[in-house]
Amino acid sequence: MTVPDPELSDEERHSFDKGVAEFNAGFFFECHDTIEEMWSGVRGPSRDFFQGLIQVSVAFYHLTRGNLAGAESMLTRALKRFEKYPDRYFGFDLAAHRTELREWRERIRVGDACRTALDDLPKWKFDATSRSPSP
Q1: Dihedral, CA atoms, 12, 47, 26, 114, nearest 10 degrees?
Q2: How far apart are alpha carbons 42 and 74 in whole angstroms?
């Protein structure tokens, strides 16, 4: 089954872009709030994708606060949400992100995730062309 890309309003796109910037800057709690507010109005098959991104931001919030069990749990939940989406979705290399999240989850499990610099944490990059507003 092919899952269609989400169709976001200009306001939703702005909120999403803001959330991505917050995630990449290490403002994981703020990212969670921003994308969750946008997500609350999203309907259809892309809803779980955005919820997975919210869970990833919560996971890294927990990780940076030393809550390893919470981080591991949220990564597991996010990976479950991402299962039904193709490797590339909404201009995002979801296959690479899933691999990265599994690696982080394993690092947490073996106790190798406590000392992490912001530059070492995942970054989100979405192709702008796939998300440009419709004419």
Answers
A1: 180
A2: 21
Give the pLDDT confidence of 12-71 residue by residue, as tens digits.
999 999 999 999 999 999 999 999 999 998 999 999 999 999 999 999 999 999 999 999
Q: Are strands 88-89 and 92-93 parallel, antiparallel or unpaired?
A: antiparallel
- Residue by residue, DSSP assigns 36-96 as HHHHTT--STTHHHHHHHHHHHHHHHHHHTT-HHHHHHHHHHHHHHHTTS-SEETTEEHHH
Residue 110, Ramachandran bin (φ over 0: left; ψ between -120 and 50: alpha; else beta): alpha
Token representation of residue 5: 């890309």
Q: How far is CA 17 from CA 8, 84, 85, 132, in A?
A: 11, 23, 20, 12
